[in-house]
Amino acid sequence: MLEELSWEEFDGWMTYYVISPWGEERADLRCGIITSKIHNVNVIEKSDLLSPIDFMPYAKRPEPEPISPEEWERAKSAHRAVGERSDTEILVATECVLEEIEVIEDVD
Fold this sequence. Notes:
This protein is mostly helical. It has one domain (7-107). The protein is built from four helices and no strands.
């Protein structure tokens, strides 16, 4: 193919790809966007919202950021003020809230 393709034509295709990428990763993203929108308009709890990456099986997912000791203490205080909960229940609830914040930021 390179023997038949001039540099100008190759450069044109590269530029076109930068402007409008194609391929399976792009197809997965388009499907993820559509699927997440359909899912999110049908959820009742905001904690059930999902982002397009949740529907992209081969996508690289960002590593979750660790919770700082100060955030952990604030979360424990807030959850204990509402009712008695174990540290495990508080950790799970805190992670869910942080994920929900990320999803809302992605949607905006």
